[in-house]
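Forum > Structural Biology > Help requests

Title: Can anyone predict the 3D structure of Ribosomal RNA small subunit methyltransferase G?

Hi all, first post here. I have the sequence for Ribosomal RNA small subunit methyltransferase G but no way to get a structure on my laptop. I'd be grateful if someone could post the structure tokens.
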Amino acid sequence: MTSDPMDPGGPAAATLVSGAAALGLALAPGQIERLLGFLALLTRWNRAYNLTAVRDPGEMVPRHLLDSLVILPYLYGESVLDLGTGAGLPGLPLAVCDPDRHYWLLDGNGKKVRFVRQVVLELGLTQVVPVHERIEAYRPGRKFSTIVSRAVATIAQIQAAAAPLLERPGRLLVMKGRYPQDELQDPALRDLDVAVHKLFVPFLEGERHLIEIRCE
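Reply #1:
Sure, ran it for you. Structure tokens for Ribosomal RNA small subunit methyltransferase G below:
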């Protein structure tokens, strides 16, 4: 009999717990269960809907969970908009480990938002609102203290789209892989308060950077 890779006592859980500890996070048993439950749902839906290119459950822990949770210390305020959330990344892992903030997860792809809705329902994430809408047409009637985006466009493009939705003070967080030298030279960013943070994601090779734009 093949063991369940998402078993709370299995290797994926061990990788998650040790990786989170390396990030300074002590996960409660319920959070571990929810995070593994998210990956189990993602694995199941992926067979039919191709939500993510990552197929190996063992790779999903560092590439989806830890890569999302690494930005938790940079979140600001009480409301977070995940712009172009896709399969709920980084918004769903963050919401599991950060229950006191409210999250809006926005994407224009209907099948991905349906998946996010199912995860929210099954995991009981009452502080998460999935939104099926394109950013250009999104008119929520409110603003957000943090807006995060996981490399869905250039920094300048994301900043232009996010600016009308960002509170002041607020933070725009753009997740990137390698240091985005060319993007950071864009004249549109010249007068903004931009900081670049090099990130360490346990069990994950390759560079990771977070571009933080502060609006005061």
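The domain at 71-215 is CATH 3.40.50.150 (Rossmann fold). The first strand starts at residue 79 and ends at 83.
Shout if anything looks off.
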